[in-house]
Protein: Energy-coupling factor transporter transmembrane protein EcfT
Amino acid sequence: MIRDITIGQYYPADSLIHKLDPRVKLVGTIVYIIALFVIDSYIGYLLAALALLAVIRLSKVPVKFILRGLKPIIAILLFTLVFNLLFTQGDPVFKAGIITITKQGIRLCITMAIRLVLLIIGSSLMTFTTTPNHLTDGLESLMGPLKKVKVPVHEISMMMSIALRFIPILMEETDKIMKAQTARGADFETGGLVKKAKGLIPLLVPLFVSAFRRANDLAMAMEARCYRGGEGRTKMKPLKYTGRDMVSYLVLAVFFAGIIVLNHVDLLMF
Structure:
């Protein structure tokens, strides 16, 4: 299960998406997320799915690697779907005792499942195709105007970059601790919910100790290198827009405009 968590990981490849400016990918991810919440028709979701498939194809990231990241959230996804299916009021299509399934509940269940899957895959592609350093530079550049109102843009970007870097490290550390505890007789799989929760104690304690130790080592390393924030710092490779970045912005604008137009189409709706 730990190995299935792919969030925050970078997948190196020589693709068009990898070569795009990180600001384009950050804006594209935000626009895509907004579009998913704006969509109100199945044809709109079809367009969003086709656009996502096209980006995946251009990114050269294996589909199996992307889908592997969905495994850890299957339980949350199923809980959300069942909750919406059983507790949405409307026109009943099935009734058995206290269980009532409505037409609106079925539609909400389907749209919610599509939206969550597309949302997770779409946002994950940004980290798959962008290094943490580039993400930090892109985020700091986009948030640049906030410096005028005394927002610590560099510090916020640095914290997000460090968090992204620590995710795969902590996942690897968790996997090592689980193997070590299993070799000592710990059982993380069998038993009820209470037993499984108690079984996590020998896993969480050393994990927290390791996380604090790594954080302390990182702080000491930054202090030893006289790190004092972003004031007056320069970049070895400053971000510059190219022609493909401008084309990408144009494609994003066309995509979002298409979503808005299709939002008024009632085809394939219940």
Residues 56 and 63 are 8 Å apart (CA to CA). The chain has a mean pLDDT of 81.
